[in-house]
Design goal:
By secondary structure, the protein is of the alpha/beta class. The protein is about 40% helix and about 15% strand.
């Protein structure tokens, strides 16, 4: 059997066996054209199959894939069937992806309510962690992360406003990549806040994530190779490092020690959490969501109609409440012209300038404790798996960010290879 067709059929079988509700519940729906896609790619000459060469890819359920539902996990948008591909999906096809289907996610990209469990949605139910069902699969790109961690596909597409790719990757022991905001086109993606949102790549390792990201772009990435460890300049962000587990702190300290022992220059800085990010999300949700809905096939075109649907079906739709949707509707008078929103953007501009200045001499920053500074400033970030297993049998991960994405990726490739070496 031709190799692309064989790989597609095998991925479909894994998706049906592992991805459905009776198992991990990470797959929302499969694309009935997957075999046709694979056959068409198989019939092309080898040099015309794109950089993905028939790789089966799953896509998060807030991104348009022609002919499939785009619901952001909500039954309020259950009638929304995409009439065209989002540009990132069109680029994936152009670069040789087989779009296998859609993944379940935390409802409205974890912007439905406070305290919603990671991976839960009214449309899909609860996504289960691939290693242990008692663990959270994190959110909101839960289904994409679990599909990669479970071996259903080597790569999947997520979206990230604040850790939805990066934290899901970390909590499932895989690689996650959120590019700089604006590097990927946002059309055809149900938003939270365009100032902060980006599609991202999730994969078994950084090279696969970079290949997927390159295929999602309008223009490919340049060829990137690992930087020499002795030439790296690494910063350690010590903000809130006491808030992580002792196991994670030990792992990070060992990684920093390994970098120093191989000649990397390591410095320290403090870049704290930016609370204004929540203000931007709250004020941008309504106008940006309605921009998407206006040209969609969804019956409900406004946030008011969506909130009314939740309130009319409380048992099915409000299991955990709708505090965030409700605030975005009822507490944002004036929308994008309002003073709280403009003030948050002004603070962001100042923090962005200062953060980039602080990072100018560094290839990458290691995050040791909770901070959202990279997301608040729209900077690229990666989660790289170490190959060292934790107590649940999946990989420990390191989160990096930087001001220059190419320097960051070259540094991350070098650090990933270093972490994969056997412990001495």
């Amino acid at each position: 059997m031709p190799i692309i067709l064989q790989e597609t059929k095998a991925a479909l079988l894994r998706a049906k066996r592992l991805g459905r509700k009776a198992a991990l519940n990470c797959v929302a729906e499969l694309d009935p054209t997957a075999i046709q896609q694979a056959t068409a790619l198989e019939n092309l000459p080898g040099d015309q199959r794109g950089i993905l060469e028939g790789m089966p890819v799953l896509v998060k359920d807030n991104i348009d894939v022609q002919g499939l539902h785009t619901t952001a996990g909500s039954l309020a948008l259950a009638d929304n069937i995409a009439t065209t591909d989002a540009p990132v999906v069109a680029n994936l096809r152009r670069n040789g992806a087989v779009i296998l289907g859609k993944t379940n996610m935390t409802e409205f990209a974890n912007y439905t309510t406070e305290g919603m469990p990671g991976g839960y949605s009214s449309r899909g139910g609860r996504v289960l962690h691939a290693a242990d069902p008692s663990l959270s699969p994190s959110g909101s790109s839960s289904g994409s992360a679990v599909a990669v961690a479970a071996g259903i596909v080597r790569a999947a597409v997520g979206t990230d406003t604040s850790f939805s790719v990066i934290a899901c990757a970390q909590d499932n022991g895989i690689c996650g990549l959120k590019p700089p905001v604006g590097a990927l086109r946002s059309e055809g993606i149900i938003p939270i806040a365009r100032t902060l949102d980006s599609a991202g790549a999730m994969a078994v390792d950084l090279q696969d994530a970079l290949t997927l990201y390159s295929a999602m772009r309008d223009a490919p990435l340049p060829v990137l190779e690992a930087a020499p460890l002795r030439e790296l300049r690494i910063a350690v962000n010590t903000a809130n490092q006491a808030m992580v587990s002792q196991e994670q702190r030990t792992f990070v300290d060992e990684a920093i020690g390994s970098l120093r022992s191989r000649g990397a220059a390591v410095g320290e800085l403090v870049q704290e959490y930016a609370p204004q990010q929540r203000t931007i999300m709250q004020w941008e949700l309504k106008p940006h969501l309605e921009d998407y809905l206006r040209t969609s096939s969804a019956k409900r075109k406004t946030l008011a109609e969506i909130v009314a649907f939740y309130e009319a079906h409380p048992r099915r739709m409000m299991k955990y409440g709708i505090t965030l949707l409700s605030r975005a509707l009822r507490e944002t008078p004036g929308e994008l012209s309002a003073a709280p929103y403009r003030e948050a953007l002004a603070i962001r501009a100042v923090r962005q300038k200062e953060t980039i200045r602080q990072l100018a001499s560094y290839d990458a920053v290691i995050m040791t404790g909770p901070t959202n500074i990279m997301h608040f400033c729209g900077l690229p970030s990666v989660c790289i798996p170490s190959g060292q297993k934790n107590g649940y049998g999946f990989s420990r991960c390191l989160i990096l960010y930087g001001a220059d994405e190419y320097r960051l990726y070259r540094a991350a490739l070098a650090i990933e290879a270093l972490l994969a070496q056997p412990c001495r």
